TrEMBL record:
Domain of life: Bacteria
GO molecular function per UniProt: triphosphoric monoester hydrolase activity
PROSITE patterns recorded: HD (PS51831)
Domain HD per the UniProt entry, residue ranges: 75-191
SUPFAM superfamilies, per the entry: HD-domain/PDEase-like
Cited Pfam families: HD, HD_assoc
Keywords: Hydrolase
Keyword Hydrolase among record annotations: yes
Entry protein name: Deoxyguanosinetriphosphate triphosphohydrolase
SMART domains xref list: HDc
Length: 357
C-alpha cells in the first residue's frame, strides 16, 4: 500500500467529523501527480517552507522596526508561533494538523517591510494614485498563486488558499475549522508575544497591564486561552471561546493598541517609513529598466507593488541609501613615484602626511 493512502485512512478513522480530510480536498488550480508518502496538505506545507518568500520573513518587522537585539520577534518567529499554537489546538480537537500548519506558515507571506506601517503606506499610495488597495492577506495569496517558483506559483490546495485569504478580522471566516483556528491563533500569538517584547523594550511595565483582564488570563496567557478553546470546542463543529476569556482577550488587545501599537516611543521610527516607501515606489515605478516587459500601466503598478512588498526591512533601507543618500567621497591613494624602487615606493606611501591625515 502507498504510504499516503495509509495516512489518509488514519485521518478518516481518527479525525473529528468536522475536520478537513486530505482526500476530500477541493483540489488545485492545476492537477499534480500525487506523492506516494505525503498527503496533499503535507505536500503543500513543505512547498511553503521551502519557498523564498518564507525565508524573507526573518527580516520583516513584527512590532519593533528592524530590531537589532536578537530576542525580539520578527515576522518569521511570529509565523512559527502561530503554527505552534494552531497545531496544539488542532491535535487536541482531532482536526487536520497538516492543513492547519500549512495555512499558518503561509498566512503572512505577503507582508510588507516595516510591518503594518509599510502595509498602510503601500495601501495609501495605491488609493491616492491608482484607485487600488493593498492588503497583505491578498498579497499572500498572490505570492503562492502567481509569484513563487519564478511566476509558476506553488499550486496549493483550495483549503489553504481560503485560509490564507480569510485570516484577518475584516474577512469572512474561512471555510474550514482549520482555517478558523489559524485566524484565532494569529491573534493569540501576537497578543502574547507583543506583550513580552514590549516589556523587554521597556515600553510597558508589568504592573500597568489591566488587572481585571490579566486576572482572567493569568500570567501564562497561552495556557489559559488554549485550554479554554479546547474545552469550549471539543466535540463541536465550531471553534469557540468562553465569554469571559473572549472579553479579556478583546480588552487586552484594546490596551495593547493604545499603549504599544500606537505608542510614540515604540513607533517613533515609523515616521520615517512613508518617505522611504514612497521614494522607492516612485523610483521603481518610473524606472524603464526595472519595468522592462511591463506592457501597461497596470502591469507597471503591479510589478512595483510585488517588488516593494516583497522587500525585507534591511533590503528596503539598503536600497533607499544606495538610491537617495549621497555616498562619502574617499580620495584615491597617491600614485607611487615611478623612479623609486619598490621598497622605497611603499615607504613613501606609508609616510605620506597627506595620506595619514
Amino acid at each position: 500500500m502507498i504510504i499516503r493512502k495509509e495516512i489518509e485512512a488514519r485521518e478518516k478513522r481518527y479525525f473529528s467529523p468536522s475536520a478537513a480530510l486530505s482526500v476530500k480536498t477541493r483540489g488545485r488550480r492545476k492537477p499534480e501527480k500525487e506523492c506516494e508518502f505525503r498527503t496533499a496538505f503535507q505536500r503543500d506545507r513543505d512547498k511553503i517552507i521551502h519557498c523564498k518568500s518564507f525565508r524573507r520573513l526573518k527580516h520583516k518587522t513584527q512590532v519593533f522596526l528592524s530590531p537589532v537585539e536578537d530576542h525580539y520577534r520578527t515576522r518569521l518567529t511570529h509565523t512559527l508561533e502561530v503554527a505552534q499554537i494552531a497545531r496544539t489546538i488542532a491535535r487536541a480537537l482531532c482536526l487536520n494538523e497538516d492543513l492547519t500548519e500549512a495555512i499558518a506558515l503561509a498566512h503572512d507571506l505577503g507582508h510588507t517591510p516595516f510591518g503594518h506601517a509599510g502595509e498602510y503606506i503601500l495601501d495609501d499610495i495605491l488609493k491616492e494614485n491608482y484607485g487600488r488597495r493593498f492588503f497583505h492577506n491578498e498579497q499572500s495569496v498572490r505570492i503562492v498563486e502567481e509569484l513563487e517558483k519564478d511566476g509558476q506559483g506553488l499550486n496549493l490546495c483550495h483549503e489553504i488558499i481560503d485560509g490564507i485569504r480569510n485570516h484577518t478580522p475584516d474577512d469572512p471566516w474561512p471555510e474550514t475549522l482549520e482555517g478558523c483556528l489559524v485566524r484565532l491563533a494569529d491573534r493569540i500569538a501576537y497578543l502574547h508575544h507583543d506583550i513580552e517584547d514590549a516589556l523587554r523594550a521597556g515600553v510597558l511595565k508589568k504592573r500597568y497591564l489591566p488587572r481585571h483582564h490579566m486576572k482572567v488570563l493569568n500570567n501564562n496567557i497561552l495556557d489559559t486561552i488554549i485550554s479554554d478553546i479546547i474545552k469550549q470546542s471539543r466535540g463541536k463543529s465550531e471553534i469557540k471561546l468562553s465569554r469571559a476569556v473572549q472579553k479579556a482577550m478583546d480588552g487586552l488587545y484594546n490596551f495593547m493598541y493604545k499603549n504599544v501599537y500606537i505608542n510614540p516611543t515604540a513607533k517613533k521610527e515609523e515616521s520615517k517609513v512613508p518617505v522611504l516607501m514612497r521614494q522607492l515606489f516612485r523610483h521603481y515605478h518610473y524606472n524603464a529598466d526595472f519595468q522592462n516587459g511591463a506592457k501597461t500601466n497596470e502591469d507597471q503598478v503591479q510589478h512595483t507593488v510585488d517588488f516593494i512588498s516583497g522587500m525585507t526591512d534591511r533590503y528596503a533601507i539598503t536600497k533607499f541609501q544606495q538610491l537617495f543618500v549621497p555616498d562619502e567621497w574617499h580620495a584615491l591613494p597617491s600614485p607611487a613615484h615611478p623612479c623609486l624602487p619598490a621598497g622605497r615606493r611603499q615607504a613613501r606611501r606609508i609616510n605620506d602626511p597627506q595620506r595619514n591625515n
